[in-house]
Amino acid sequence: SATEAFNYDIDTRDRDACVVCGWKIRGCVDHAHVIPRTENETWEELREQGLIPLRAKSVAHECRNGILMCKNHHSAFDCFYFYIRYIPERLAYVFVNHSKHIDLAPWNDKDVRIDPDDPRAPWAVLFAYHEGLVRASKPFGASVVTLPGPPSSPSAHS
User: Fold this and answer.
1) How far are the Cα atoms of 2, 9, 35, 150 from residue 19, in angstroms, in the given order?
2) CA 139, 142, 145, 146: dihedral to nearest 10 degrees?
3) Is residue 153 pLDDT above 80, yes or no?
4) Rounded mean pLDDT of 96-118?
5) How far from 47 is each of 52, 86, 129, 132, CA to CA, in Å?
6) Confidence at residue 147, expressed as pLDDT on a 0 to 100 scale
7) How many CA atoms lie within 13 A of 158 on its CB side?
8) b/e map 67-100, b = 16+ CB within 10 Å
């Protein structure tokens, strides 16, 4: 089935382990979707805009829309605590702990275990979309430009 093909391709590409921490215990690693399976309209919009190929499978069955993550990292990913960004200069996908959550600190700015040269590697635009959702959900996270403080009150002597 398409779901079995999705799972097989991700298991093979990600070597049956969480792309963040390497956790590998069967039953404790999930097949996560970058764009949620229920986001058919978003998927079609990405396709119509030419951001993903027209030949791409459905949002639920395209292996380039999936990654393996342990249950902890999958939950944090879905709750917008972190995002993954492709950094062309490093030729790597990198973990960004947007929430500054202490439990995610060990992985911040570390390469995740996704080979960008693998033909089944996730499309970077999907992670960029997820990053936008994270930034919108948590606008004062770690990787947001520092906002200036309020203007100081005028001095009595000026």
Assistant:
1) 22, 14, 17, 41
2) 100
3) no
4) 95
5) 5, 20, 13, 18
6) 37
7) 4
8) bbbbeebbebbeebbbbbbbeeeeebbbbbbbbe
pLDDT of residue 142: 58
Return the DSSP state at 150.
P
Terminal Cα-to-Cα distance of the chain (whole angstroms): 76
Residue with tokens 């764009």: 35
C-alpha distance from residue 12 to each of 46, 47, 104, 137 (Å): 26, 26, 25, 32
Question: DSSP per residue over 121-135, as a string?
Answer: SPPHHHHHHHHHHHH
Structure tokens of 65?
């829309």
The pTM score is 0.85
Structure tokens that stand for 100 in this block: 């500054």
- Find the mean pLDDT for residues 2-26: 94
Asked if pLDDT for residue 149 goes beyond 70, the answer is no
Axis crossing angle, helix 40-48 with helix 124-137, rounded to the nearest 10: 130
pLDDT reading at 143 higher than 80: no
